[in-house]
Structure prediction request, 151 residues.
Amino acid sequence: MTESKDYSVTFLVDKTPEEAFDAIANVRGWFTQAIEGDTDRLGAVFYYHYQDNHRCTFKMTEFVPGKKMVWHVLQNYFKFTKDTTEWTGTDVVFEIGRKGDQPEVRFTHIGLVPAYECYDVCASSWKSIIGSLSDLITTGKGHPLTIEASE
Prediction:
């Protein structure tokens, strides 16, 4: 029997849970400016692409201000994997809780597991992207990909 371990990272912030949540919902401020569609309400569908290597359509399936946000991957395309749809059906989850007296953000990509061909590349990319989110929350300035870099 093999254990599947979803990719996850946790970090503490010196902001309120509501401020952290608002930053997460500002996807263009930390992930990429090349997002089409709304990212700040339940039921919203938005589209992401990076050059011709990655295209993804997300649907906001949970949106609980100050607490939790879930993006369900409706469609995914990777140019660099045998199974080009590897992420399809997975969930990207942001949970805001507390560790002691400090807000804590937990990011988990449910379904992104080491058995995936893209795991190493995707985990490395998420690490950088979540670093940008952490910066946006703590300093007010993230490091999203520009539209030009995504083309």
User: Anything to note?
Assistant: The mean pLDDT is 93. The longest helix spans residues 119-139. The radius of gyration is 15 Å. The chain has one domain: 7-141.
